[in-house]
Each structure stands twice: as structure tokens, then as C-alpha cells.
Amino acid sequence: MARQSSRPGITDVAKLAGVSLSTVSRAMNGNPSVDSALAERVHAAAAELGYTASPLARSLVLGRTQTVSVMIPDLANPTFQAILHGLSRAAAADGFHVLISDTAEQVADEVALATTTRRRTDGVILCAPRLPQSDLSALLPSVAPAVVINRLPQVEVPTVAADYGAAMGELIAHLRELGHRRIAFLSGIVGSASGEARARAIADAAALGEIEFIEIPAGVDFDSGAAAADAVIASSATAVLAFNDLVAMGLLSAVTTRGLRVPEDLSITGFDDIPFAAYTTPPLTTAAVPAAELGRRAWDAMHALLTGGEPVTSATLTPAVVIRASTGPVKT
Q1: CATH: 3.40.630.30, 2.60.120.10, 1.10.260.40, 3.30.1370.60. Which one for 10-62?
Q2: What is the CATH number that goes with domain 164-289?
Q3: 153 upstream amide cis, omega within 30 of 0
Q4: pLDDT the model gives residue 63
Q5: Mean pLDDT score, 134-150
């Protein structure tokens, strides 16, 4: 004969409390339609029996998984890790879980991945999606509720972003004050909205005619920065704006092994202010992106969508430029 489980069930709670199964279900799920006295009896009976509702059963009753999907372009990037840290901590505090998917910078996979993960979750948060705007606009209604991080404001979809253009403008102003008039820009991945904001800031500065910018294609990691060293040296630039801190670190290492001194021979700036940026030799001048706060703000927007709270339309945070020893006056 099959062995009977000694674990109390919803039927046992209903019998002890003297109510129906549906009343137990509604009371355990916090449904306000249940009379407060009945709800108190149900919870007292559940506590006496040691009964806890199955998470799966709760999800079925509520029509929710208590999980949201977060899609990012590169899990190895410390900035995205910091965004996820802030987001997941905030979600956990509200009783939600986070399902993370990494597109590995494959733009062609973004639509399918967002659509697939949304079917298994209550909503989707798209972190720095690389999709063209027309494709993103077509995708968002199909995966609603949705929140977007680090893109321009979207129609009827909350957007949380950092002002990369403003921070890049401050880095350029810093280098100008140091006397640099020939600056190389190590551009990042194609399709990055934050990269486009950086490029616009450079174009605005170039239009003033005081500084010559040389764009050198590069990626978003340490290796791509190191690989750009010869092109940077050949450009005769006296300063470099790297796409992010990882690229700056790769370049810093490579030019140092070639005999250049930083900042005496070449000033280098990064972007993001990842935890390692303050510990390079020399420490890296960069723009501190409030990544964890971006994650928290994105969760607040999603939580409002899921619970009917005060809606969040968009929020923009400005990175703070941090001056360290990797930048100095141009050599005369």
C-alpha cells in the first residue's frame, strides 16, 4: 500500500478552521475579500498544523510566478553585474525572484530570448538592449509589462537610464583643461545606445573646432583595449577616451609594456567606475555610473506595474566624473 504523507494539507486546515477549501486558499493568499475573523481562524489553524502553501500552488492561484526576467547583453561586464545586484536585491525584498538571461551581445537573439523568458515570468526587464529602435518598439507591447534600462525613453514603457552623453562631455572638458587637443576615442560595440550618446558628445565637442578626435574601433573588454594599443600610438593622440573601464585597463596595460608612461606620455580615461578602476597603476580617471541604483530604479518601475502602484515613466541618472592619476597635463 502507498504510504500516506504526514504533511498537513489545505484540507486539514479547512477542517480545523471550519471553512471551505476556497476560503483557506483566499485567506492564505491575502485576498481582502475574506472576512478578517475567518482569515484569522485560517491562519491560526495553519500555524497549529504547521501548514505552508506550496509556491507552485500559490502561483497557480494568483496567476503569477513571482519571478521577472532580466535580459542583459554581457554577464561578464562588471557594470551589468552591478545593475543586476541592485535589481535582484530590491526584487527579493519585495518577495520576487529574478531569472537572468545573457544574450552575449548577439542582437539577433534578443527578440526570441525576451519572448521566451516572458512566457515563464510576470514581466521582463531589458537591460541595454542592442535592438534597433524600430524592432524594440515592436517587441515591447508583446512582452508587457516591461521596463527598459539604458535606452532613450520608450512609448508607454518605463525607462531608467544614465546620461552617458553628459558624463562624456565632462571627461572631454577635463582633458581640454589639461591641454589635450588630439584625442583618440576607442568606440565600443555597434548598437549600444550608451555608445551613441558618447559619440554625440564627441561630435558636439569636435564641432567647436578646438579638439581633433580620432575614432579607433574597439570592443567592450580588456582584450579589445589591449589590441588597440598600436593604433593609439600611431595616431599620435595625447589622450584616449576608452569606451569603458575594461577597454581602458587593457590599453593601459598594453601601452605600459611598450614603454609609454601614463599619464606623462598618454592620458587615459575609462567609463563606468567598476570596482577595479581605483586600483590600476595608475588609478583610472573615469565616470562613475550609478549601476546598482539603475537596477533598483528599474525594479521599482516593474514592481509598480505588477502591483498597480504609482507608475514610473522614466528616470535619468547622471554619472559623476572621478579624476584620478591616469590623466595629466599634455607633455610639452
Answers
A1: 1.10.260.40
A2: 3.40.50.2300
A3: no
A4: 59
A5: 95
Report the candidate in 266, 235, 281, 229 with the shortest Cα–Cα distance to residue 250.
Answer: 229
pLDDT in tens, 4-25: 456 787 788 888 989 887 788 7
b/e per residue 203-221 (b: at least 16 CB within 10 A): eebeeeeebebbebebbbb
CB 129 within 8 A of CB 281: no
Supply angle C-alpha 24, 26, 28, rounded to 5.
Answer: 65
Strand order in the sheet with 239-242: 212-217, 182-187, 239-242, 267-269
What cell does 295 get? 537596477
| pTM, full prediction | 0.79
- The number of C-alpha atoms within 13 Å of 180 and in the hemisphere containing its C-beta is 31
DSSP 209: S
CA distance linking residue 163 with residue 278, whole number of Å? 22
Q: What are the residues facing 149 on neighbouring strands?
A: 127, 160
* Alpha-carbon span 251 to 230, nearest angstrom: 10
CA nearest neighbour of 260 among 229, 287, 292? 229
Sheet architecture: strand order including 97-102:
97-102, 67-72, 124-127, 146-149, 159-162, 314-317
81 Rama class: left (phi>0) / alpha (psi -120 to 50) / beta: alpha
Domain locations along the chain: 10-62, 67-161+291-317, 164-289
CA 271 – CA 44 distance, rounded (Å): 55
